[in-house]
Every structure is written in structure tokens, then in C-alpha cells.
Fold each of these.
Amino acid sequence: MPFERFVQTGRIAKASAGPLKGRLVAIVDVIDQNRVLVDGPLTGVPRQEYRLNNLHLTKYRIKFPYTAPTRIVRKAWTESDLKAQWKVSPWSVKAQNICKRSSLNDFDRFKLRYAKRQRNKLLTIAFNTLKKRTKADGTPRVLKKDRRERLRAEKAKGGKKAAAKK
């Protein structure tokens, strides 16, 4: 699969360093191989030059003319409904989860650790029961408990059949 995230007019990027860290910006113009002119009218980013080393390119791109003014960038941004698309993207969800994790206090971390321990205990029990029920070659093993239940069920059915015949 070829590379598809090019530095181009309309490409949406996420600032990774500096005062704009975490904000989305649109590339308006490429100044040189290291710098671009960015604008983020709906994310509170004024039009300014920004280093490419401090940007992460996203898969999103909005259509507007080369070196368009801020009002046209704003219009294209709102028409593309970029905010909603970004909120459901895995990248955004992961960033929000990292933010939530970093804001946990000591008691929240304890509750999380306790819940994980409980979940893992349930998973281990379920795995071990399945492991007991299978042989080394992968075929299901009939346990004594299963055999007893099956015999009881057959007796119950046999009793009904015998009663029906009489």
C-alpha cells in the first residue's frame, strides 16, 4: 500500500509539540521542506508558520484553494464535519484515554487494578475449565460430572417413556 499522507494544502495535522500541542490544524501553504503555514480556525489556532517536525499528518484532508484566507478554511472545515470524524477516530479515542489515565488519582488507580484483577480471575477460571474439557489433540473430553448429568437426563426421559407406554 503506497504512502497516502502527503504534505499538501488542505491536509489536517495534529500538532505534537509547542504551545499548540494536541490541536488540529490545516496546512494552508508549504513554505519550504521544513516549514508550513497552518491555520486552525475552529481549534483556536491562529494562522502561523509551523515546523513539520512538530506535526503529525492525519488521513483527513479538506478541499480549499491554495493559500486560502481563514474564512474559506473555516467554511471548508465546517462543511467537511471534521470535528465529528475526528472524535470517533481511533487516534482521538486513544488520546482521550491517555488523558483520562493520566488524570486518575491514587484511589482510582487502586479501583482499576482491583477490577482488572477480578476480570483476570474470571478469565483464568473460564480458560481452565475449557482446558480441562479438551484433550491434548483438541477433541472434547467427557468428564465424570458430564457423564452423571447425561445418565440422569436419560433416566428421566426413560421414566417418562415407560410411563407413556403403560
Amino acid sequence: MGGLALPKVSVKLGEEQVDLLLPCSEVEAMFRDPLLDELERTRLLRLRAWREVCKLFNLSYAQPVLKVVEGPLYLVHQNFIAGGAFSSLPMFLRFDGREFIAEFHRPVVAVNPYVYYFEGVASEWRHPVLLPALIHEYAHVAFALSGRLHLEFIRRASLDLRLAMQLPFLDDQDIKAIKEASIEVEALLEVPALWAEEEVCSRLGLTNFAERRLRLQALRDEELRRLMSKHNIAVKGPTAKVRVEAMIKHWRAVRKASLSEVESYLEEQLKEQLADTWSKLREEFGRGLKVKLRDEAVEAPAIMGRTVEWLRLWEYFLKREFKYNFLGNI
């Protein structure tokens, strides 16, 4: 490094000035051992947290595998680069000659050292640092597994229109409706996890800082877009601020609600956002489109082509803006 400072941005949250280091190999090395130490110390607490999440969603299921991933490609993975933990029920859509089947697989939760660092800043280093983020991801998994895989499919179709375009019962107007509602649909399907994170943190005596986490992510995104534009790097898609404001709006509407009230709110809002397309999807679930869970493990989080592209962009950006040689320091 030759004494060069680590790449970072400074953002203002209310009256507080917050410095945020950016994903790089040195930050990963700095926080690897603290992350692993905390995970070792909190094994039983994580199991308790999972059980509390399951109680909320009336679910009986084994605790998801927790992976720690490292390396340059994971540093720029779409979740980890933003400082967010990752969870997924890997899914494949197939056609068996009669119907489409959305086949979900055994859930996995993953973090990397940068997530530990970002959660530390967001929580003002309250320990255990990572547990609220893991509760949030556990809640995503539990909500989907508790009879709501169809909503998880809708969330994914709104994030990747190529998925929706494979379904013959959706026409061009439906695809347009899904595209236009994508921000709201994504925000709505964050609500169960935000709701459960707050509830379980309360039960375990933990401070809930989900809103601070979201606002820091939005502010960091805004500053990064500004800096990247100086180097002719255009970040496509809605800003994190737009997405975060939508999430907080819907979360506040149900913060003190029961699970049944949260479900009713989601149904009403999805119907309002997707209109006739919502009705089509509801009619086809179980008929022309089945969702099912296979109790088999699939490799996740996957490294996709877009991640490799982001690696090159991130390397270029850090070198131009901060004189930091990203790959040369790995």
C-alpha cells in the first residue's frame, strides 16, 4: 500500500458524520478474525434467535447453514458490497411438459468480513455485532418456508423480469405492470423481515438498528454514485434511497401489527400495486405454476457474470478515485 489510506467515504446521518470504509482486501483481513470469533461465541444465541423467528412464523425447520465467504468476487457481490448479509432459497424454474415448477432448495445464509464491519458501524459496535443482521436473514427464510414460497417467487420475478417473461400466462401488459411495481414489491417483501427483526431483537434484549442500517446504506450509495459519475461510471437502476424510503414506509405501517395483520397488509398492497397481474398470478399458483421445496443443498451465494463485471468496475473506481490498487493488494 505504501502508506496510502484505505478507501472510504464520509456521509452525514442527521447531525452525525459517519466515515465508512469501502470493500477491499485490507478491510476484509482486518475484520476476518473478529467475525469468526463472534460467530464461535454466539452459536447457541444464533440457534435461539432462529427458534424465536420460527415461533413468529409458526414454522418448524432446521436452522439454515451459515457460510462465511471471502475473496474479491464476494467483496463485490451485490449484497456484500452494500454491507448486507445474504440469504436465499436457491430456485430453478422448469417446465415438465404440462406445467411450470418453481423449485426452491435448502436455505443458506452467508456473510463476509465486510458485512461484519458495516454492521459494526451501523450498530455503533454494540455486541453481538452481527446477530440482528442474521435475524433479518433468518426471517426472510422463515417467512418463505412458512407456506409463502409463492410470495418469494413474485419478489424474484419483480427483481428479474426474465423470470416473469418465461411464464406464458403473463402478457406484455403484465410484464410492464411487474416492472413498474418492482420497487414497491421489493419493499413490501422486505417488511416481514424488518418486522420480525425488531420483534426478535426485543425478545433477546438486543438493540434494533435496522433503520440506521438502511439509511447508512442509502447515504453510502448516494455518495458512491456521485464519486463514480466523476469517472464516467453510471450505476443503473433505482437509487438505494428510493428503495429504502419505500421499505421504511411499509415497515412503519405494520410495526405494531400481528403476523396475520402483516400478511393482510402485504396482500392488499400487492393487489393494489400489481392489479390484474396479481389476480393472474394467484390463479395460476398450483395450476399452471407450482412452487415446491426440495430438501437438497445447492451452492449459494453464486458468482454470476455480473459480479465479474462489477469486480472490474470496482477495481477501476478505487484506482481512479482513491489511488488504491484493489487486485494488487489481494
Amino acid sequence: MTEYRTVFRPEAQAELRKIPRDMALRILAKLTELEGDPLGFNTTALVSQPDRRRLRVGDYRVVYTIDNGELVVWVVHVGHRSTVYDT
């Protein structure tokens, strides 16, 4: 099976730095697992933006898109579930 690679948009990288270290490490571990199958792994398409998907990690969410041509998972936003969808 082909592995995807994860790339953070600059704003997502900045958001990840604001998250507590232990949770940020959990998020990074889940993203590493997600590289094997970005459509599975308990992810859901966003209703308002079907091209984007979300990954739950505790009370935090990772919003991402998939580029199947380049085999890239683009992380768009990372944040607490109460605020991540506001952007």
C-alpha cells in the first residue's frame, strides 16, 4: 500500500505550537498512523466543506484535505473542538 506524507500549512503549524506538548505529540502520532489510510481511521468529511476531513484526537480536531495525485495529506487546521471550525 502506498504511504501518503503529511504536510502542514503554515497556519496549522502555528496552531499546533499553541497546543499543550503532550496533546501535540498525540496528534502527531495519529497523523503518522493516518498516512497509511487517510480516508479511514475514524475520519469524517465536513458537512460545510466536503473536500475537507476531520480527525478526532481527544478534545482536539485536525482538519485536512487529501491530494491523491501527490499522495499528500494537507493539514489545514489544528485546534480545540470548540474553536477549530470557526476559521
